Amino acid sequence: MKIIKLFSLCAILLLGPKIISQEFKLGKVSVAELEQKVHPKDTSAVAAILYKKGISRMEYDQNDGFYMMTDVETRIKIYKKEGYEWANQQVWYYNTNNLKERVFFADAITYNLVNGKIEKTKLKSDGTFDEVISKYRGQKKIAMPNVKEGSVIEFRYTIKCPNAGIIRDWDFQTSIPVNYSELKVAYPEYYVFKPRQKGYIFPKATTLKNSRSITINGKERNGGRVSQTEFYSDKIDYLETETTYVAQDFPALKEESFVNNIDNYTSSVQHELSLTHFPNSPMKEYSTDWNSVVKTIYEYEDFGPELNKTGYFEDDLKKILTGVNTPEEKIAVILNHVKSNVKWNSYVGYGCDNGVKKAYKERTGNIADINLMLTAMLRYSGLIANPVLVSTRSNGIALFPNRTAFNYVIAAVETPNGYILLDASEKFSVPNILPLRVLNWSGRLIRKDGSSEEINLMPEKTSADNVFLTYSIDNTGMIVGKTRRQSMDYNAMITRSNIESLKEEEYLEKLENKNNKIEISDYSRTNEKEILLPIIETYSFKGNNLCELIGDKIYVSPMLFFTNDKNPFKQETREYPVDFSYPFADKYNITIKIPEGFAVETLPAPAAVSMEDNLGAFKFNIVANGDTLQLSILHQINEAIVSAEKYEMLKEYYKTMIAKETEKIVLKRI
To answer: What pLDDT shows up at residue 221?
Structure first.
């Protein structure tokens, strides 16, 4: 009997529609391309992608079934030395027991124009590297040889993926201009993929339905008096969906201030496997909505079952919870217990690496090991606790339902007043003060029954930074003073992290250099280890370049080194939201003693600016009393994320604030 594996059919890609394709071939670099000194549409570009073409197709092996092949060829022009980094290319690949991809580079050549002739330098074997990124991923790298200003580099790579349901994401934009980018994907009728595009400019897409066929060869033995082998060949016809995406003259995607992750706004396309439907088999759906995604994840062996393991910590937890009654006390004690006993190994992921039991015993684990353990302990103590799936800032915003949208997990405790979010991987994190890497719009909470709920990850509480500054100016322009800075919530977590990463001497040197080369003495900290309390830094300082002495007058910016002197919002328009990470309020109380023999000639006028919708406010007030000046200043932003529609208002707000903060006090000799 002939057995044909229809679920392992091959999709054979042909060339896409000629009406939108252009002919580019590796090895056909022109003298004109090498002679070009600057990009014709972006003279500031350090490099440009002249063309990049990719083909993702399914191929069939009678032993292994379907697999996905992706071939990419690229030509890049280097204009400036700053563009040399584009001569180093890398392609990541899955490297797990269940999914081992292979990556091959080929046809990698650097072209230069030497005495009017094209010179080729081929990549040698010592320019190819293979490295481990994590337990789950590796990376193939090449370093192109003989790269100079004016060089053109070319290379090709192939990714062989044993999982036919994975199509690599494709970016049509990057940090340099893209002259031409084309992606072609094709798959048989037995697969349905959902294409999802993001960004602010989109490629042209053309979809065709092609008639395709595959021939499967086989053999079978027939019984009887004389056994013999019969060879056969079966031809199977099917329809193929072929989509071609083409982008031409896409501008460089340039970094702007307060952007979460620029990749969130890159013009790109993703393909999520939606369903499979093979002949004589029932239809199987994948990741059609968020509930089905999280339900699938919860049932993974390295996720949901890990939450049910409690024996390894029960004795320890009974001891530390003795006499602890309120939910707040339980949360604090358990969070501190996990942070103190299990250290993060810097690996992310929502699936456990070693498993919670082993991680607890060995005192180290990945994010899932730590925070699923935390969730299990919170549940054991009687609290309503559940894991929350998160996509970190570096991973991008989880825009569409799919299992790869998340790469992190935290814990949430349900209370009558709302959720308390927790992450035990960060030493200085406290309840509802998460590591900055986690503050990425929203996460997905999963309950025991498989239901889910979107959880807002962005802070709503304002993090204050209160500065008390007292200083005196002498008649030579020398300033001597004292500073007391009280940082709370997110500001406190960041300050503690900065302090811990450096020795005190290095920290103070960095602080001195940052603050106009001042000289710091009598430095002290309060509540450095008491992370539930604000951290307070105090120090004395002096500096002789904090004001200007011109003739008989002294000019001084009253906020000294705390002055905001540059507007971070320089673009005329902005397409991306402004991401401050968290709401904040910077408050300054400043006392200035003017030198003997001087009087105030000019003081900045008081000012108050309030943005619409309670987005933020700036207040500046100054009062003179004899030889003493008293200032109070407030700069407050009330939203962690500000939409692009409010950009013009925010830009004008910052312009007004900076103009006022940089306004000088003028003292004249009397």
So the answer is: 65
